[in-house]
């Protein structure tokens, strides 16, 4: 535990230093603007940095609180994300029972299974039992108009916001020989790589971006930004091997997989937003949009990362 605490505090100090430097750069950029002038890119950057301070503090407090703190944090994230997702669906009054079951039955059970470390049922509870339960509850109301679309939207919301998101705290349930008591650092590794990849793709895109990679889905994403962000995040992942049970090469490979899944996850969630005619999932986080706008990359990469670690490194 002493080694885990030492590594965690070293990581926290590094993140704190990075945020301080970023805040100073944002402040200097703002001061260099002529009086009365504004710059949308600089304002967005400063808003993102302020939001990052809040998010890092919340995650840090959850880590300090231990397993219960991490579960409560991601349980809240799942609830808030599910709420954001449902607001963009075409549900009807006939779906209210199913929605109530999703929020107040399915989601609490999923996180309770995590608390009890019941991996077997945890891994199939939503994609099997909840997926069968949702249409049964809805069909009892007798409304068949757009029934398949309505129930599929609720099922997809559960899959993304609860099932996939819950795989982040699920990393705490793994037993890795020689890595006991340090699993919280796996969460830190996953979140840092995913979020840095997003930030670095944005930065590289602003600096060198010329070629749109998916203009109809996400106009701001460019080939140059994608390549620069993925390569940079992969190298940073390799450099962070010391907080993981992996070698530098393994950490780099996993970081690459995480960034790729995060990128495609962002595209999928952007496609849903375009389909619904909205720019952001919500307005919970200033400069970032809704909670799903920050979690979209995480939720797509978390299950893949969890299962790779579970089957290659864990004994449980």
What best-fitting shape do the alpha-carbon axes yield? globular
Content-based structural category: mainly alpha
Largest sheet: none
Total number of strands: 0
Straight-line N-to-C gap? 20 Å
Oligomer: single chain
Q: Roughly how much helix do the residues carry, as a percent range?
A: over 70%
Secondary structure tally, helices? 11
- Helix and strand run: HHHHHHHHHHH
- Unreliable stretches (pLDDT < 50, length at least 5) are none
Give the integer mean of the pLDDT values: 87
Q: How much of the polypeptide forms β-strand, as a percent range?
A: under 5%
Rounded to an integer in angstroms, the radius of gyration calculated over CA atoms is: 20 Å
Secondary structure layout plus pairing:
Elements: H1 2-31, H2 40-65, H3 67-87, H4 96-115, H5 119-122, H6 125-139, H7 147-164, H8 184-208, H9 223-239, H10 248-276, H11 291-312
Task: Give a description of the structure.
- By secondary structure, the chain is an all-alpha fold.
- The protein has helices at 2-31, 40-65, 67-87, 96-115, 119-122, 125-139, 147-164, 184-208, 223-239, 248-276, 291-312.
- Helix 3 packs antiparallel against helix 7 (147-164), helix 4 runs antiparallel to helix 6 and helix 4 runs parallel beside helix 7.
- The model has no long low-confidence stretch (mean pLDDT 87).
Name the descriptors.
single chain; 316 residues; mainly alpha; 11 helices; 72% helix; globular
